Amino acid sequence: MNTKQGRLGWLFTSPYLIYAVVFFLIPLVWSLFLSMTDWNLISPTFSFVGITNYTEAFQSPGVKAAFFVTFKFLAVFIPLVVASSVIVALIVKGLPKYKGIFLIGFFLPYLASGVVSSLIVKGLLSYNSPINEFLRNSLGLDIDWLGTPFAALFVVAVIIAWKFTGYYALILTSGFESINKEIYEAAMIDGVSAWQRFWKITFPLLYPALYTVLILSIGVTFGIFTEVYQLTGGGPNFATNTWQMEIFTRAFSNLQAGYASAIAIIASVVTFISIFIIRKIIELWGKRNGWD
């Protein structure tokens, strides 16, 4: 009986296992092999270069920029998307009815194409756009949105935050709904203000939903590509050059597939370690509020 159950279990898990082997394990092994070659993506032959690609990558300005730019995006995007998601969830929570319809409306940007939204924003922020003409003529501000390092990074962060706010608000809304209403009633009887109720009751009890949102948003930060590719191409002066942008440029623009594979391996290690450390910090905050 145990043998039959074991075979049945393997049968049901086989689609995922096959998927993991074909789309994860095999590409990972192939990427590790390519990272030690000088393959140019076109030539049928290539040479084995050992760890040369890795040593060059550690000295590359583009790779160094990708490392720091990712954490800059982290510092801008995470507070922005978490704050906007909490605000949207609070707005929906306070609605007397039709909450589902409003949540769907906020969720729709998540389904929008990153290419389309980036092109629209590029048009809105162009030099002759109505927005820039208004800023120049009325306020005397001449802002090069995509040509200034921080402005370009901020614009990309805002677009991605706009896209994911509705999705994360769904998660936070379910977190709000799971909080026992009797706790609020007891706090109101004790004279606790609304501000104190939010920071002392709601925020700590929202930890499971916040934990999920934070981990998901951190993962998004390490995979930014479409918006950067469409708007800035990694510029100006590497100010928005993410890991994915650097890998794409090296592999498909410079035809350095082996070198790009080495960067991809380095990016994977940095991503894993960073998420692991940040996750532990978040879990420490959860334990301080009674979550094990």
* Tally of contiguous helical segments: 13
CATH class: Mainly Alpha
Quick one: biggest sheet?
none
Shape: globular
User: In the CATH hierarchy, what is the architecture at level 2?
Assistant: Orthogonal Bundle
- Portion in strands: under 5%
Please name the fourth-level CATH homologous superfamily: MetI-like
Approximate helicity band: over 70%
Alpha-beta classification: mainly alpha
Instruction: Please tally the β strands and state the result.
Output: 0
Descriptive key words:
single chain; 292 residues; mainly alpha; 13 helices
Structural overview:
Helix content is 76%, strand content 0%. With 292 residues, it is an all-alpha fold. The protein has a single domain, classed as MetI-like fold, CATH 1.10.3720. Helix 3 (61-93) runs parallel beside helix 7 and helix 12 runs antiparallel to helix 13. The protein is globular, with a radius of gyration of 24 Å.
